[in-house]
Amino acid sequence: MSQHLFLPVVIMAVSPMPGAFQDSAVSPTQGESEDLDCGRPEPSSRIVGGSDAHPGTWPWQVSLHQGGGHICGGSLVAPSWVLSAAHCFVTNGTLEPADELSVLLGVHSQDGPLEGAHVRSVDTILVPDNYSRVELGADLALLRLSSPAELGPFVRPVCLPRASHLFAHGTACWATGWGDVQEADPLPLPWVLQEVELRLLGETACQCLYSRPGPFNMTFQLLPGMLCAGYPEGRRDTCQGDSGGPLVCEDGGRWFLAGITSFGFGCGRRNRPGVFTAVAPYESWIREHVMGSEPGPAFPSQLQKPLSGPWEPREENCTFAQPECGKAPRPGTWPWEVQVMVPGSTPCYGALVSDSWVLAPASCFLDFPIQQPRTSDSSPQDFETWRVLLPSRPEEERVARLVEHENASRDFASDLALLQLRTRVNLTAAPSAVCLPHREHYFLPGSRCRLARWGRGELAPGSSAQLEAQLETQLLNSWWCHCLYDRQGESVPPPGDPPHLLCPAYQEEEEAGLCWKDSGWSLLCREEGTWFLAGHRTLSNGCLRPRAFSPVQTHGLWISHVTQGAYLEDQLTWDWGPEGEETEKQTCPPHTEHGACGLRPKSTPGGVLWPWLTEVHVTGDRVCTGILVAPGWVLAATHCILRLGSTTVPYIEVYLGRAGVSSLPQGHQVTSAPALLCQTEGGPWVLVGMAVRGSRELFAAIGPEATWISQTVEEAHFLHVSGSSYWSPESNDPCPQDLADSASSPKVAALLLLLLLAILIPR
Ligand code: ARG
């Protein structure tokens, strides 16, 4: 954040700075005392993305305590009056009793003895009649102290703006408080008051940012009496616990309370600036309630009229901030891919997640003898010999710190470590950081994903990392993923809670020679052109299908807590489809040994609906449908492959996972009609017949060929429709009777052909 240059202001009781007291010409309005000097901190001197304030910089800042702890901030506006937020004191429509509250004045650090601070109890809490919920505005409250505060260098009131006071958008103002430093990340000890510079956003710009779907698909309507401050790119903001506290802007040497921290969506998120209660519109409400108190709050008039009013469209174009992470112009060449080199072991692949942090599997470093204690406080010399190699950078980076996930050694899903670089990297096209998902990020089924190297493993001979990284795969529906992953019969947790596994579509790595022996992969998924580190896996149990990845989103809190600046990004694609479809509880169909036969994803937007359908390309431009019956076997109609009288096998190519999706090459024609499939009661689909030559309605039954097929293809699975012999027309076949009837024909073996796949050609 930019440095807060606080210029000492000399307090002059009689002769103020030139021009400063044009104010005195203005006759004091009712309730205003001219004796009360406001908005001038004595020169003695988080809020998200902020820094420690100097003691005495913000002497109007108070801390409101309830039950012994800080609940909200507030601003001293007169010796007996504090202005705060209504939502701090209203629960379920009822105002909390004032006697449970105490006001701490002149506090800097809330840890230990509160030197120079003093406490007041609260007499009365006043809340506007029209306050109901924060999103509906009027979120302010006046607290009357039981006895006046003792004003001094650390306790002074802030100035209040008149209703006519204009705070121009673009003005740099400051917010202060003891609130969380990130979402769900409390201010660490010694709880020093945080300050952050925020820019005022005009109504148009703010409404524009909020009208773009963001976290939880939510948008929001900015109302009169609210104001926004922050940045389209986020990262600096107020957060939980800052509420009620001040947003102050300087004018002619005085600080005015422009806003009261009210709410936001998350903290510091992109396109989600903080929302404040605008104080100026409440001038009369405040005056009315403080009437008669001496001295009351001061409402000095504005000295510097902004050149442009907040209604003018200057800087008010509607530009959303784009993520500053996850850009890879050439997918497969990842600008965040780093290699951590520890002497005596093979390099470990990880990902750059900010300008100074690398995320990698902890198992890369667990075996390595690191001097004790290996905690987050490991001294820098432990890593003297470690080096980090970043893409497009000849120099090697040094490591300052290693923070292992506390469950790293116990739990595969937590096999993560964060390495801090000694010097911050200048993030450009390369190196750049990958985006990380927030906890509530829903990677949608059908998302485009790729694999990237992860961890220390080596490729099995004949494998090519390059090839693997080039492969685009699609994310499976999480229910589907769960079922495939062989957790038969269990009830499936709703996918967003968060998911336990992420599965990209079935890949035949074994046959393709891409079997991953001791290596890990990370799963990168793309949304609107931005890559997210969605999953990681270091589990080296050979060639498990489908590959299952541990979701990274569950670790967002840990990552943000450690790094204080990793790129956690909101979900960018919002098409969640019919509501609740994904979240309803489902039971997996009975499993098979491979866990995968006959199962069909419920829906994959633009994807493959019949994952066993293959395109069999035969020389001579014939294309027919084949059925994947086992990882290495495709069943096709004989007439499609062999020409009458010919006994030589032509050159055949089988394309998987694209039947019906891609358009066929020119001159190719589908010569075979598709297969006949019936769904069993348990869910999986069973191949019942293959179309006979020249027909789209007559099918050669597969049933009679079960023996031949099972003898040839050991791994083929035979499921019975409704528990009885599925090909018998007499059985209670779930298929329409006329189709089931036509699905029997003698001498089928002559019509069917099994193709043993040499290599499965990925798309
Ligand atoms: N409502 C919060 C509180 O009670 C303040 C949240 C401000 N959030 C933000 N993103 N600006 O402390």
Can you list the strand order of the major beta sheet? 10-11-12-15-14-13
Q: Ranges with pLDDT <50 over ≥5 residues? A: 1-33, 368-378, 508-513, 722-750, 759-763
The N- and C-terminal alpha carbons lie at a distance of 46 Å
What is the percent of helical residues?
A: under 10%
The rough form would be described as elongated
How much is the average pLDDT?
A: 78
Beta-sheet strand percentage?
25-35%
Bound molecules: arginine
**Would you count the extended β strands for me?**
37
- Count of helical regions: 9
Largest sheet: 6 strands, antiparallel, barrel
Whole-number radius of gyration?
33 Å
Quaternary structure classification: single chain
Q: Indicate the structural class.
A: mainly beta
Description:
There is one protein chain. By secondary structure, this protein is mainly β. The chain is elongated and about 110 Å long. It is 8% helix and 25% strand. The site of arginine has 13 residues, from strand 14.
